[in-house]
UniProtKB/TrEMBL annotation:
<dbReference type="GO" id="GO:0070973">
    <property type="term" value="P:protein localization to endoplasmic reticulum exit site"/>
</dbReference>
<keyword id="KW-0472">Membrane</keyword>
<feature type="domain" description="BAP29/BAP31 transmembrane">
    <location>
        <begin position="1"/>
        <end position="135"/>
    </location>
</feature>
<keyword id="KW-1133">Transmembrane helix</keyword>
<feature type="domain" description="Bap31/Bap29 cytoplasmic coiled-coil">
    <location>
        <begin position="152"/>
        <end position="206"/>
    </location>
</feature>
<keyword id="KW-0175">Coiled coil</keyword>
<dbReference type="GO" id="GO:0006888">
    <property type="term" value="P:endoplasmic reticulum to Golgi vesicle-mediated transport"/>
</dbReference>
<dbReference type="InterPro" id="IPR008417">
    <property type="entry name" value="BAP29/BAP31"/>
</dbReference>
<feature type="transmembrane region" description="Helical">
    <location>
        <begin position="6"/>
        <end position="28"/>
    </location>
</feature>
<protein>
    <recommendedName>
        <fullName>B-cell receptor-associated protein</fullName>
    </recommendedName>
</protein>
<comment type="similarity">
    <text>Belongs to the BCAP29/BCAP31 family.</text>
</comment>
<feature type="transmembrane region" description="Helical">
    <location>
        <begin position="103"/>
        <end position="120"/>
    </location>
</feature>
<dbReference type="GO" id="GO:0006915">
    <property type="term" value="P:apoptotic process"/>
</dbReference>
<dbReference type="InterPro" id="IPR040463">
    <property type="entry name" value="BAP29/BAP31_N"/>
</dbReference>
<feature type="transmembrane region" description="Helical">
    <location>
        <begin position="40"/>
        <end position="64"/>
    </location>
</feature>
<keyword id="KW-0653">Protein transport</keyword>
<dbReference type="Pfam" id="PF18035">
    <property type="entry name" value="Bap31_Bap29_C"/>
</dbReference>
Length: 206
């Protein structure tokens, strides 16, 4: 395997390892988000788009080159004189096998590049949604606690007003009872005085 295809194969293995690592279930999206926001990753992301475009162009060129090699070594019976070159068929088959292998390596590397980029984007979006969900949940809990506190204060205020109204009603009733007693007492005194005044007048008339 030539140097360039060894590098592509190594890159493919690294992509497979990265995809498997990102798919580990017990690592939460929040932890991945923290890793993505680290200084080293942010430095890589700064030049990530340019690197990604260059990588895609290189892999596409390698795929095209592999397809060209496959077309070159295909149909060996039409291109080689089997009687004069008995070992040429094996040689062409070996070249065809290498071209097909290179096509698979470059093709899967290209596919995993898009998959890896999409996977990182989805994990980041999921972490953002989880953070937003927690913020909304805390906000809802805070609003619920505030509403509960307001209702308790409102009930307490109603209770205080009701107690105050009851005390005022009791005081007014007692005051009314006192006025009634005082009025009855005055009536009795008035009746006594009237009787005292009417008594001597009746005796004089006799």
């Amino acid at each position: 395997m030539s140097l360039q295809w060894t590098a592509v194969a190594t890159f493919l293995y690294a992509e497979v390892f990265a995809v498997l690592l990102l798919c580990i279930p017990f690592i939460s999206p929040k932890r991945w988000q923290k890793i993505f926001k680290s200084r080293l990753v942010e430095l890589v992301v700064t030049y990530g788009n340019t690197f990604f475009v260059v990588l895609i162009v290189i892999l596409v060129l390698l795929v095209i080159d592999a397809v060209r090699e496959i077309r070159k070594y295909d149909d060996v019976t039409e291109k080689v004189n089997l009687q004069n070159n008995p070992g040429a068929v094996e040689h062409f088959h070996m070249k065809l096998f290498r071209a097909q292998r290179n096509l698979y390596i470059a093709g899967f590397s290209l596919l995993l590049s898009f998959l890896l980029r999409r996977l990182v984007t989805l994990i980041s979006q999921q972490a953002t949604l989880l953070a937003s969900n927690e913020a909304f949940k805390k906000q809802a809990e805070s609003a619920s606690e505030a509403a509960k506190k307001y209702m308790e204060e409102n009930d307490q205020l109603k209770k205080v007003k009701l107690e105050k109204a009851e005390r005022e009603a009791v005081a007014m009733r007692k005051q009314s009872e006192g006025l009634t007693k005082e009025y009855d007492r005055l009536l009795e005194e008035h009746a006594k005085l009237q009787a005292a005044v009417d008594g001597p007048t009746d005796k004089k008339e006799e």
